[in-house]
């Protein structure tokens, strides 16, 4: 999925061009008002393409730092899923996801966290970073405002 949680109207065509260029098919998203940010628009689309396309979509969307967006790539045979979140002021977060959508924190990440944390507060802060707590907190009002919004279905050509 690509969730564009908020975009100025002038940037919406650029978002569509970025997604179109990555997927190799014309994209015409259904933009609706974003109640959590008056004057901004939102859109979402489901896409189907080879593994790794999510990162390419994110690279295209990051060109507009005023956007709030999420890109999720479902897990496939032998490959973890990935979730990307972008929020102005916080930047980009990405992490692996399990089949049910939970964030997967790897063994090496946990070992590094334990070895580097100097206090319980530092541990909790770093764990929140690994689990995207600040991004979820910032995006949650935008997610709820999009409940019931139209979804566009896209498939990569070729």
Automatic annotation (TrEMBL):
InterPro entries: DUF3145 (IPR021491)
Pfam families from the UniProt entry: DUF3145 (PF11343)
Phylogenetic classification of the source organism: Bacteria, Bacillati, Actinomycetota, Actinomycetes, Pseudonocardiales
Annotated protein name in UniProt: DUF3145 domain-containing protein
Naturally occurring in which organism (per UniProt): Amycolatopsis acididurans
Protein origin, superkingdom: Bacteria
């Amino acid at each position: 999925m690509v969730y564009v949680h908020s975009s100025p109207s002038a940037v919406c065509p650029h978002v569509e061009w970025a997604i179109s260029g990555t997927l190799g098919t014309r994209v015409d998203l259904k933009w609706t008002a974003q109640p959590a940010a008056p004057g901004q628009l939102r859109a979402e689309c489901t896409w189907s393409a080879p593994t790794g396309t999510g990162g390419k979509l994110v690279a295209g969307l990051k060109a507009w730092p005023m956007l709030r967006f999420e890109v999720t790539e479902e897990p496939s045979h032998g490959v973890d899923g990935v979730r990307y979140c972008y929020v102005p002021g916080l930047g980009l977060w990405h992490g692996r996801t399990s089949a049910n959508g939970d964030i997967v924190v790897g063994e090496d990440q946990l070992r590094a966290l334990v070895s580097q944390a100097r206090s319980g507060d530092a541990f909790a802060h770093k764990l929140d970073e690994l689990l995207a707590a600040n991004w979820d907190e910032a995006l949650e009002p935008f997610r709820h405002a999009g409940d019931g919004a139209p979804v566009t279905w896209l498939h990569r050509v070729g």
